Amino acid sequence: MATAGVASRRKSEELILEGKVKVNGIVVRELGFKVSEKDIVEVEGKVINKDIKHVYYLLNKPIGYVTTVKDPQGRKTVMELVPKDKRVFPVGRLDIMTDGLLLLTDDGQLAYQLTHPKYLVEKEYHVKVKGKVGLDQIEKLQNGIMLEDGLTAPAKAVILKEDKGETLISLTIHEGRNRQVRRMMDAIGKKVLKLTRVRYGHLTLAGVPVGKYRLLTKKEVEKFKNSVTHLSKILDKKQ
């Protein structure tokens, strides 16, 4: 269902548990139920088109937009910045005051793999903080920071620039916890002045102005799929 773009992996699981999915006319409530190309899958009475072609957008998200499909508070959402004729959803989140690279797609399977920590997809941020950052603080980021929801995985942290009482840091992580980068900076006593995601895996913001988007190329999509498939095989062998 996620692969066919019906919904995200989590939402697909909810639909199954609610009894809204049928395979060959029979309601299926078992998560992970296997289907073949010959099976007819219905979701809420509609047959899934298994041959659907997915779309993948790379958006340079501006500050002031929330990363959600709908916002009950009536704030501007990232969905206003991409075509409305496609049923896409954001891959992970950037908070309202964070700008930069955001992926949107209708490919639920790939979205799940890109956001799950076990697939080790890197996300690089440029973080401007107030004051100087010591090497001991950089080392803490590199070793992992203890947050209220547990120890973060080791990060790549490099000081890019120091100027006028401010420091610009490159921070690369592969997790996607809520407001993780901001919380990591809080943990080392640094206030974030500006936060921008500049890279997601092999993708960068090159050529995409703030507030604009572009379609991913077939080669870019295949590179993501090949990398997660390769890692899946390695993880399966370890189990």
From TrEMBL:
Domain RNA-binding S4: start-end pairs: 1-53
Enzyme nomenclature, EC number: 5.4.99.-
InterPro entries: PsdUridine_s_RsuA/RluB/E/F_cat, PsdUridine_synth_cat_dom_sf, PsdUridine_synth_RsuA/RluA, PsdUridine_synth_RsuA/RluB/E/F, PsdUridine_synth_RsuA/RluB_CS, RsuA_PseudoU_synthase, S4_RNA-bd, S4_RNA-bd_sf
Organism: Anaerobranca californiensis DSM 14826
Gene Ontology terms: biological process: enzyme-directed rRNA pseudouridine synthesis
Pfam families listed in its UniProt record: PseudoU_synth_2, S4
GO molecular function list: RNA binding; rRNA pseudouridine synthase activity
Designated name of the protein: Pseudouridine synthase
Cross-referenced NCBIfam families: pseudouridine synthase (TIGR00093)
Domain of life, source organism: Bacteria
GO cellular component, one term: cytosol
Family named by the database record: Belongs to the pseudouridine synthase RsuA family.
Keywords: Isomerase, RNA-binding
